[in-house]
Amino acid sequence: MTFKCTIARIAGKLALFIVKLGKGMGRSFPGYLFLKVGGLDCLKELSKRSKIGNILITGTNGKTTTTKMLCLLLKKDSSVSCNFDSNTINAVATGLLRKESDLGVFEYGIRTSKYSIPDTVCEYVDPIGVIYTTISREHLMVAGEKNPFREYFKAKRLLSAPMKKGVIICNADDPRTAYIGMEKEKDVQVAYYGLEVGLEDETPLSAPVHCPRCGKKLEYSKRYLNHRGIYKCNCGFSRPEPNVKITRISKEDKKWKIEIASETYNYTSQKRISSKFKLKVPNFGIHNIYNFLCASTAYITLTPNPENIKETMKKTAQELEKFSLPPGRFEIFKLDDKTVGIGQGDNGDALKANLQFHPSHELTLIYTTPDKGEDEIFQDHLRVIRSAQPMKVHVFPGRESISAAEKYYKIIKGYFDSSFHPISNEHIDKKIDEILKVIKEASTKSIIVSGCGPEHLLWARLKSKFESTL
Ligand SMILES: [Zn+2]
């Protein structure tokens, strides 16, 4: 390590120590200081502290859950340094400063190439694995600027674009992540995961899906969950054959019984892996089945001890029972004879995954809206809400703009019995109290609170308040 990088590392380590002492100093400060002193070249040096290499996880939905599951798997075989919610290069550097290990696992959220510099991160972190969960339309406004889906998709793609070695792990059932993989097959190894089961999502798509190659509308012969399924296009683009797949799924004793078959390559040991085993996992939604399959594929592909795969998978599946979900994620609470589901659903795909949980009738929906300029997101939400057919909709502003929320409410009112609660996030306590009041007074057995909103300020607090007051 060069002298400059050594100094940068000492500065970063010191900052890490100070951050530990003080509260709320920002988790990315040590990385910021490290980069300020040493620059990007030192990040390249620092990233070598992970002996086998680093793994970056991105996608619109499921990033945090997948990262957590992957860490749970890899920890049984090797030493792992895990970092969640790292959305900037500073946060990644902070994670690398923390400890030396065999593998560094980093969740990396990307909105735009301008703010997330995904290609720079890839170049300097030099990952051995880039993992894609799923990609769909989300926040269209980033730092006051319009960020069209095309740009958002491009930014996600850039995270793996500079790779010359390693593996890209893609969801074969998601045409967007599959496309990213196909375009890189000439440079690196690509492992696809997907379902091959009898399930079918019969509710409509939350948004039309266009071919990532030619732009025409894609044809689906089967959909497993929203835009994930078996698809093809006239131009020749079609779903790739998954290397790791779920070949059987059924409910047994309130659990999912699944069979995972893999025919793939382990990057670390450079061996071909072929395995098949049955597991029982908790009764969670199909989106979490995908998250678990994604994490399993990454684990099978990157573990330094492939001989342990079967045993590690079995052990981890059992541990998922007490797996704690990230703060904004959807959770179900019981209140007398009512079922209340609460959690973020800030894009059509996520809202749809949340609404899977309610019985198909007698639903009260408490919907928190997107912001000004996010009409496309609202349209995706509306499609999902219309297919769920709630008896009553309570509309709250989810983000900044109250007038945008009112505009969205007026559209919803055209379809459902609705009411509007114009309380801003500045009065978050008032908003939470009002939501609790609506829940208590609801006439239906099933209530769902979902939509847009700040993760910790709204969702985490609402859930904790819910637990303590009801
Ligand atoms: Zn096409």
How would you describe this protein?
This protein has about 475 residues and is an alpha/beta fold. The protein has helices at about 5-20, 30-40, 40-45, 65-75, 90-100, 115, 120-125, 150-160, 175-185, 285-300, 310-320, 350-355, 375-390, 400-415, 430-440, 455-470, and strands spanning about 50-60, 80-85, 100-110, 130, 140, 145, 165-170, 190-195, 220-225, 230, 245-250, 255-265, 270-280, 330-335, 340-345, 365-370, 390-395, 420, 445-450. The protein has 3 domains: about 1-40; about 50-320, 3-Layer(aba) Sandwich (UDP-N-acetylmuramoyl-L-alanine:D-glutamate ligase); about 330-470, Protein-Tyrosine Phosphatase, Chain A, CATH 3.90.190. About 40% of the residues lie in helices and about 25% in strands. The strands form 4 sheets. The chain has a 9-stranded mixed beta sheet, sandwiched between helices. A 6-stranded mixed beta sheet has the order 14-15-19-16-17-18, with helices on both faces. A two-stranded antiparallel sheet has the order 5-6. Helix 1 crosses helix 3 (about 40-45) and helix 4 packs across helix 10 (about 285-300). The protein starts with a helix and ends with a helix. The mean pLDDT is about 90. The structure holds zinc ion.
In short:
The protein has helices at 3-21, 29-38, 40-47, 63-74, 89-98, 113-116, 118-125, 149-158, 175-184, 286-302, 309-319, 348-355, 375-388, 402-413, 428-441, 455-469; strands spanning 50-58, 80-86, 101-108, 129-132, 141-142, 145-146, 167-171, 189-195, 219-225, 228-232, 244-252, 255-266, 271-282, 331-335, 338-344, 363-369, 392-397, 418-420, 446-451. It is of the alpha/beta class and 470 residues long. The site of zinc ion has 7 residues, from loops.
